[in-house]
User: Fold this.
Amino acid sequence: MAHMMGLYDEPFALMKTGKKTVEVRVNDPKRQKLRLGDEVEFIKAPVQDDRLQVTITKLKTYETFRQLYEDIPLDQFGEKNVSIEELLSQIYAIYSKEQEKEFGVVAIYVKRLDE
Assistant:
């Protein structure tokens, strides 16, 4: 199955260079449809002038973003010299704690199709 998701400029660039191999989302109904081997087309937001095709290699769910960030090495998010608190601040600017509580969260491990 094919899926489409937007990514802001910096995470998009990190994924395109292969430095970011895990995408983080709330596990809402759209993400609950994801399966191993599915393809995802990431579109650079907000301009939508670049696209990146990946395949899902692993999915891992958590109750909270904190649990996710404490479990997965931060370098898989393409981040260096950043704390979990900074990552939480960034993710809560996108998702509310109510969404996190309602749906839980998912780590989407990906591999670029051109690798």
